[in-house]
Each structure stands twice: as structure tokens, then as C-alpha cells.
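Entry 14. Structure prediction run on the chain below.
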Amino acid sequence: MDPSQPIHSPRITHRRTAHLMILLIATALLSACAIDDSTSVKAATQSATRPQTSREKMWALLRVDDRPLSAVVLMEKMVREKELNAQVFAQFYAITGDEQGTLEIIDADAKPSTSPATPLDAYTQRDALDAIAAAAQGTRIVILNEYHHIQRHRAFALQVAWRLRKEGFTTFAAETFNTDVEKTLVNGIPVLNTGGYSIDPPFGDLIRQSLRAGYRIFDYEDRDEHEGADQRDYRQGIALREQAQADNIKRWLDKNPDARVFIYVGGSHGAETPDEAGNEWMASRLKKMTGIDPLTLSQVSGRARPEYDGPTMRAATALGAKKPFVLIDKSGAPMSRFGYDMLVFHPRVADRYGRPGWLAMDGYRQPVPVTLSPMPGRTLLRAYVMDEPAGRIAMDQVLVPPNATSATLMLPKGKYSLVVQDEAGVNQDLRNVSVLDPR
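Output returned:
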């Protein structure tokens, strides 16, 4: 997204819509169930006295049955029948790995920008990870945001997590985590029940690798943040949720006075100043409550087509960078907007092997071509880390069009089992592969 556009546009106001709240309530209920005993969850669902709603079916497909392509088919129907907002659909469609298709859903009504490109003569580029590491010195809290439909943000968040770990950060917290998130881990591995958006492979790996790097994790979302609120009062809902998040984080910080925390949020939650409507977000409240000035980072990405980009993103793209960067003015201060200390720009990069070029992550992931038998409908090619527990999150998955004979996965070093899933949710086991680290 472009910083010249409001960071709190449609879901992207970052207060759950009514239907998404229903999904989160379902998530909380599922979190009470044993993750490796999906049979009992299914039985409980089937024994309900009323039929499942479409939203409940969708969530069960994603979080219990691990049938994301079947969930996509259902969500497409829900969008057509106006049961589901298209932008919410995009947030879950993104997990198929179809980056361009996801952006097109978000930008279905977008029009080319007519504003002239923002002059950037007063700025110089700096590598984003270097700039973040330098700016994080001396603070206990770093907050990075994402747009929930952009997988690239999650891949970058992992790179930030690695870098901050070297700088002494000890703890990772994420908006998506379910209550008592550490209890959802199985042998230290995140699973489908660990969070909502973390079923997305790059998000799942962000958690997996953060744990391997030595981070502790904790949840801070209040599942009852709207209790007592007038659901027609949009601003009251925001205020209750933001305060609940800040309260929970402060409570955890008070119990862990030596911890340095990397917090991963959606959209506006990391803003340190109120927005134009007067809404005060979590980071602003947390700063007042703790006296800690967090380093707040907002990610900026392109839209479905370059001509849709806002004036700042178009100017930044014209600089020709190959990696995420920040813009520094002559005084040494980074470009900052919408209550964030620093904007992180993601340049457009060409696809490689039919996948987004950024997926290589500086060599962390390697291309693995896979030969397929043609199938009449869409399929989802998936790779699971071998020996991970039941309910595990795929390391990578990619949507395969009908009748395709090959596709490419992007995988880190390790051993994987490959599976093809069709729209009905039927899995076909392929082969196991080993990926070596070329570095």
C-alpha cells in the first residue's frame, strides 16, 4: 500500500467487521480443543443442534480440516452472495500464494493515480534491515505492521525478527495469536490452531523460525474487547479493542521487565498518534501507559498495477531499489507518516520461476520445480516439513491452474512431503524432497 493512502481503509480500518468477529470467536472456541485430535472437533461440530453457517464452515475448512482450497471455493460463493466482504476474502485467498490474484481482488475498483509523483530529491535510500537495527538500539519495543492480504510483509517480518534477535530482542508477539498461544504449540512447532492469519505459510514460518531463533511468544489480543460495546458505534469498538491490546501488552511487560519485544500488528494498530477521525490506536496508548517510546514501522507495497500506486510509492519505485529500503532525509530522519516512525518500502521485483521474486528472501528459500499430472480444476500444491506434528502449517503452497503440468515451490533447507489438494479437499500424496542450503 502507499503511504499517501489512508492506512485504515476498508478492513484495513483494522477493527474486525461483524462477520470477521464471528470467525475470531470460532477461533477462540477451537483453541480449547486439542490440535492433534481433530476428530473430536469435527464430532463436536457435527453434533451441534443447528446447521453450520457458511462462515463456520469456512473456518472449519481452514483451521480444522486443513482444506484451504475448499475454503476458497466456499468464500467465492459467499462473496457472490454478499455474505462476505471481498477485501476480507482477499486476506484469506492470499494463502494460496496467488499474489497477483489477491491484489486484483483488493484493487477491483481501483483507478489510476492522477497525482504527480512525490519529489524525493531530499532523501537517500538505506537498507531497511540496517536502518531498523540501528534505530532499535536503546528501545524495548519494536512494532511492525502488515496488511493482512500481503504475504510479502510476513516474509520481511521474519527477516526483521532475525535481525532484532541479534540486537538482543527476546520476545515475539502477534495480533493473530490465539489466547494462551504457547499452549497451542506442539513440540515447539506452530500449528493451525496457533493463530488466525498464521495458517498462511510465510506467517507460519515467521513463527516457526522465531521460535527456533530463541524468541518467546505471547498473545495480547482481547477476545472480549467488544463486550459491552454498542456494535453500531464504530469508534467505541476501536477504542475498546485498542485499550485491551495495550493493557495486555503492558501487563506482560510488567511481569517480564528484562524482555525486549518485537510486536507484529495489522495496519493502524502500530500508529503512535490518533488518525484524522480521532481514533487512538494501540501503540499510542501503550506509549502513554509505559513511558516507552516504541520504534514503529509501517510497510509500503505496490498495488495490483503500477499505475494504481500512489505518488510516493511511484516515486520510490522509480529509484530502482532491489531490496526493502527506507528513505532518510538530510537531517538523518527517516520518512514517517500516519503515526509511524519509519516507512519501509518494498520495491517491485520480477517474478522468478513463476513465483514472486521476493520469495527467495536473499537465498533463504530455493526453487523446487515439481512435475504434475494435469487435473481439470484448480489445485493447491503444498509442501510440509517432514516430521512436524499433526495440524502443521505448510512451508509453502501455490495455486495451480487447471491442466498444468508443473509448478514451482520455494522452500528453505530441509526435508518435505509434497501434496496436491483439489477443490473438494482431496489430497494426493506426491513425493518427498530434500532441499540443500547453497549458501
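Confidence is low (pLDDT under 50) at residues 3-47.
Filed with the rest of this week's runs.
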